[in-house]
Beta-glucosidase (Dysgonomonas macrotermitis), 867 residues
Amino acid sequence: MKAKVICLIAFSFCTATVISQTEPYKDTSLSFDQRADDLVKRLTLEEKVTLMQDASRSVERLDIKTYNWWNEALHGVARAGLATVFPQPIGMAATFDNEAVYSVFNAISDEARAKHTRYSSENSYARYQGLTMWTPTINIFRDPRWGRGIETYGEDPYLTSLMGVAAVKGLQGPAGEKYDKIHACAKHFAVHSGPEWNRHSFNAKNIKPRDLYETYLPAFEALVKEAKVKEVMCAYNRFEDEPCCGSNKLLTDILRNKWGFDGIVVADCGAIADFYKENAHETHPDAATASAAGVLSGTDLDCGSSYKALVEGVKNGYISEKDIDVSVKRLLKARFELGEMDKSEDVEWSKIPYSVVASKAHDNLSLDMARKSMTLLLNKNNILPLKQGGLTVAVMGPNANDSVMQWGNYNGTPPRTITILEGIRSALSPNDKLIYEQGCGLVETTLIQSAFDQCAYENGKGFSAVYWNNMERQGNPAATAQITTPFRFCTSGATVFAPGVNLTDFSATYNSTFTPTKSGEAVFDFYAYGSIELYIDGQNVRNFANKHGSRKNTYIMNVEAGKPYDIQINYQFFNSDAQLNFDLGFKEEIDILKSIAKVKDADIVIFAGGISPSLEGEEMGVDLPGFKRGDRTDIELPAIQRDFVKALKEAGKKVIFVNCSGSPIGLEPETDNCEAILQAWYPGQAGGQAVADVLFGAYNPAGRLPVTFYRNTAQLPDFENYDMAGRTYRYMTEKPLYPFGYGLSYTTFAYGKPQVNKKDIKVGEAILLSIPVTNTGKSNGDEVIQVYLRKENDPQGPIKTLRAFKRVSIPAGKTATVPFELTGKQLEWWDDYQRSVIMSPGKFEILIGSSSDDKDLTSIPFTISAN
């Protein structure tokens, strides 16, 4: 009898095992739709709701692992430690090379896959370790004051569409594979481009239908229809009174119904909470009603915790469980598509080796993109390229030796960064001389002079360090050390803070006594990823935790000469790779004449100025002259830099101005005071070499402006007005400083007479162009041929709008005949009668040339007639 029972139990166990192996959601021979359908039916309401939050908890009984949906790859895998850092997207847009952008994001997705495979092999599923990248940002950079414009591909809908499509295809991998490589996310849908300071309450309203469909939506439509993007992120602000993440017009009528998007809509982080939070939108009374509204309008995933209230929402009748099932199925299907629910060894992408991360090949690609992004704006008397040999070069300016500036925002940590100063030093010959004098900061009229050498503890100079391999600073220390120079710690590349200390889950305490040699304001300067506690004389004076990558923090206090101050810094690992940079010093007033005296022997002054991601970016806590919470209140070059450049000019110096920024700067005075201006953007880890290669002629620049460079702030309409009238090259009637599409070369190009196959076409037909372009100079170079469209007798429409471009390499003295085919959306225009953008009858012009400026364009009239 006992044997029969044992056999019966064994038979039951075997039967259960067979059944579990054949459960439809585990059957890899079924479609992802079928597997998701089956799995949804097995979940409880509470389990479904946990899967609808960015930090999705596991459902162990169904073998659903923990998954964190939040990851970033704006211009390289971000916030996950070691990674290749490519130029900021606005710089990539300046390449006017969407094929190169595809190559960059193909490399990024290789690194992302390799990182995820490594993390998952260690059973680590934290934020910034997943396969869903909340990239690219394809909002239109309609106003240069918007801080997040640095994340975009510029002000033009067509350029943004092509760059965005390239980014998505590079991330998601080729079509037809069993599993997707990575999932991309088009953000932030849709009428969203500042201001940052009030984005949680701002209402973008009274938007003209024409502006909506001609300017704000085309890039999103292209990514949905052409690139098959898997995710769309809705924005913080309201659109026509409805929060974007609860907008039936945007999410249901346009995205789902009109465009047929069947992927995931994710709410920007905390956007659902803005529905009901005080001083935000306050369109809903609580989390339950807000969450129900979000899901019913089509928002599947909450980056936040508001969706916990969906359980209450079902109980109160605000939403049905059947409605929730729609979103849960989309989420599960996406995880199946990525292979995240299956065995890693069965997913081909998991075989990408970790050696691709920050590899030499990717470093070379970053350099190539940085070179291609360099945009030469001014070159008086062909002073560039500079000639080495017996040259004395002075390098000055706040961005000359700043590696972090080059990384932009939403960045990873590269193994090495070549600063502009380093790049120039390497480019000089043995017969040349270099003088480095920073001179000034970005905005303030003071500079910080280090006083680290005025710190000591009982056993010597500097700081004592004690480390623990836990995060509580408890038990026996793992290591102790003496630190005699400003802190420069980072665990990228598996580099520990000290021998014997973990790469993760560690903590530290640093102690010293600071005895200043003078009285004044002492500045404690941190750049860290982790949690910091600062104590002075036993009193806790400052705490901060940077949770989304490394950021700068400072503490300022008055000190007396000769008085000792006990300093204690507690550090705690937070996530990913740890970083702690620290120095302390005194602010000293800038002395322009004193600095200029130090470079009196220089033949050339290369001044690396502009602004920085520490000033422009996403909802920042920075309020300085010209800046407000990451936005800018004016577009002028900061006054201290302007004064410095002017003084150099008055001292008889030839100034080459290298402008680092993610947005247009008003450089009108600098065009008089400088011999040359190079727009370098935020050029990534190899940016310093790219700058030097251009300045000294190793690379012929061919970048083009993806944004209009206005003369001054007076040329800008009201920042909060989303009407396109007067904005960007498409609607601006005044003359800008530098137009969209503009950029100089070290050679010259001549355009021959364009050939067109027909000047009268019917709706639905295409136009074929053939454009001969000759390199008439002495240097090989790239030319960016640009094709614009204009409609006659349309005073409310764009003056012109980009519809095609190609970046072409042409050897000196040679001619390239460049073909274009204009078809489909390239020939569409707003139709007032049908209230949509379509190909419709009318008289048009094709404008062909080297920039958007009319003087650089040749016109070909043509007519579209009805069938």
Confidence is low (pLDDT under 50) at residues 1-20. The longest helix spans residues 98-121.
